[in-house]
Automatic annotation (TrEMBL), chains A, B:
Residues 248-254, 272-276 are annotated as: RNA binding. This is Queuine tRNA-ribosyltransferase. GO terms for molecular function: metal ion binding; tRNA-guanosine(34) queuine transglycosylase activity. Homodimer. Within each dimer, one monomer is responsible for RNA recognition and catalysis, while the other monomer binds to the replacement base PreQ1. InterPro entries: ArchSynthase1/Queuine_TRR (IPR050076), TGT (IPR004803), TGT-like_sf (IPR036511), tRNA_ribo_trans-like (IPR002616). Zn(2+) binds at residues 305, 307, 310, 336. Keywords: Glycosyltransferase, Metal-binding, Queuosine biosynthesis, Transferase, tRNA processing, Zinc. The active site is at residues 93, 267. Belongs to the queuine tRNA-ribosyltransferase family. Pfam families: TGT. Its EC number is 2.4.2.29. Its cofactor is Zn(2+).
Length: 377, 377
């Protein structure tokens, strides 16, 4: 087995788990947030900066790397770790979600998905076997099975048909995966917002021996209380001895609610994407540093933050840089937002260790406000 | 006096000088190249990275900071050093060159220059007094007198009239400068490509007691041999006890030829600007890493370079990042180019110390080729 999950303890106040995922490139303390490095780089950040903020693992995107620069080139380079100079763990998604959300003229068959590249219109094809070939070439520590992620809302019949295909695809992935000793393959539970379908998907996938399980098809436009309901009934269906990964989730409230429900891993482009238009997560809630009211504000982005950005730079300076289209401004907001979420997860882990995660959540929400979709996250 | 120039020795092979400029924010080893941080940031770089490559001083632009965010805001922030988190020396130009090259609808009178902002069309005015007020607010270690920089080619009569006004403006700058104990004011010798006018400008300006002298109006489109001729007759007119600064020059060959002729300081946007389209300076000459031939090249940008970029990343990776519009690619080429020029100046200083700068230049040109305008620098 490429990875090993070590359960340290469960929070007495909630279903939250404190654990460690041991991988070929080091240990991930869980619950963990994974910064997203779509194109073999976490936008604007260096590997050293990611280490300075103590990111244990990053995610990179199979679909994007398949299109550009191509997985064969990365294989030649000695794998993704070497290519991008990152020696800690990497998780690659399967390309499934991106094929459905980014590509054009896609056609799904039992065999796989035919689509046109969103970059240049090239006709391409990804099947479970191709997704494994790509990810084996990339050499990520954790690979994801090729799945279909239906949009929200979707009809019951379609979701059922789709999850059953995802199960068959998962089985093919397991067979096609050529490096099980170096790379762990996670399956993705689908089933939309239907409890019985989530149960069906989880049962089918856990009957096969994957080293970890993800919950997909959430954070796709549904209200957050629906997402939490789905977690409430889906997480208990997953094996306790293996890591559980909630895909595409990264708002502070959802990281807390997911951890409380027993999720171990999260990823999201939210902190890096909002940073690029000058929006930051702070202990006082959402702060849009571009706004005119910060022009003469010489305080840090977040007075309670100890990150590189908040230690050294003012809101006025960061606003100036962003208004002047200076890259360094985006570096500073990106660094801060990623640090904010990684610090939140450190706090979550400590709260689990001390059996007070619900108290921590309540205090967080009271003090910081909800970082919900309505406020822009 | 805010600064002190210490002449360590003169090269026995050339007019080159090894020296130190002591400033309120530390020492500049000369001859020195100054990275340009136009808008209170060296594009894409952090202060820590500039220190890692051992930049002793950076330049920032009065015109740009006057327009945005405004010098009063930077004064409120505690000055430019504090605003941008850079505690080493800063030189600010006077805004003269930018007013003439960037602004619109400018009108020059004896009093100063009226112009419209290239950002928003605002009607603005800079005079020698305003240029001093701005730079005093910025708090740079070295300020530049407000000058007019005529284009090349320019008529003799115009250049003469212009340099005489520049002399009168320099005198007004000296009077208006309110912080001579904290900030050194350099005068700028003009005179175009006319030897007698350069002589006139140098004589007039050196008759006033400026702590340093710049040579302006070069690298404005004239052939390089003309520039070197102007240096040949202008540098000897400048006082040996004070630093000499050649403005706007930064190609490797011109740094060498300028040093040989006794120049102590240089600045140029060249290394940072070309980095942004994937052009790099290497020991093998100009290398455009965007080019398709580097797609599968897993070697460093420059096999003889020891910089952060060349130690950790391949041409293939950097090319991928730049093709994919990833900021980190530009960070890597920018870092390398700045390091290349700073390393060149370290080599120049050592060659002066060992009385072999002409030998060093010849070896450099033989091995590296000329980095001349024809090749894109």
């Amino acid at each position: 087995m490429a990875i090993k999950y070590e359960l340290i303890k469960t929070c007495k106040q909630s279903g939250a788990r404190l654990g460690r995922v041991h991988t070929p490139h080091g240990v991930i303390e869980t619950p963990a947030f994974m910064p997203v490095g779509t194109q073999a780089t976490v936008k604007t950040m260096s590997p050293e900066e990611l280490k300075m903020m103590d990111a244990h693992i990053i995610l990179s995107n199979t679909y994007h790397l398949f299109l550009r620069p191509g997985h064969e080139l990365i294989r030649q380079a000695g794998g993704l770790h070497k290519f991008m100079n990152w020696d800690r763990p990497i998780l690659t998604d399967s390309g499934g979600f991106q094929v459905f959300s980014l590509s054009e003229m896609r056609k799904i068959t039992e065999e796989g998905v035919q689509f046109r590249s969103h970059l240049n219109g090239d006709k391409l094809f990804i099947s479970p076997e191709v997704a494994m070939e790509i990810q084996n070439a990339l050499g990520s520590d954790i690979m994801m099975a090729f799945d279909e992620c239906p949009p929200h809302p979707a009809e019951y019949d379609y979701v059922k048909q789709s999850l059953e295909r995802t199960t068959r695809w998962a089985e093919r992935c397991l067979k096609a995966h050529s490096r099980p000793d170096d790379q762990a393959l996670f399956a993705i539970v689908q089933g939309g917002m239907y409890e019985d379908l989530r149960r069906q998907s989880a049962m089918e996938l856990t009957s096969m021996d994957f080293p970890g399980y993800a919950i997909g098809g959430l954070s796709v436009g549904e209200p957050k209380d629906i997402m939490y309901q789905v977690l409430d009934y889906t997480v208990p269906l997953l094996p306790a001895a293996k890591p559980r990964y909630l895909m595409g989730v990264g708002s502070p409230d959802a990281l807390l609610e997911g951890s409380i429900r027993g999720i171990d891993m999260f990823d999201c482009v939210l902190p890096t994407r909002i940073a690029r238009n000058g929006t930051t997560m702070t202990s006082q809630g959402r702060l849009v540093v571009r706004n005119a009211k910060y022009a003469n504000d010489f305080g840090p982005l977040d007075p309670e933050c100890s990150c590189y950005t908040c230690t050294n730079y003012s809101r006025a300076y960061i606003r100036h840089l962003i208004k002047a289209d200076e890259t360094f401004g985006i570096r500073l907001t990106t660094y801060h937002n990623l640090h904010f979420l990684l610090q939140l997860m450190r706090d979550v882990r400590r709260a689990i260790a001390e059996d007070r995660l619900l108290d921590f959540r309540d205090a967080f929400f009271t003090k910081y406000g909800l970082f919900d979709n309505e406020k822009g996250f």
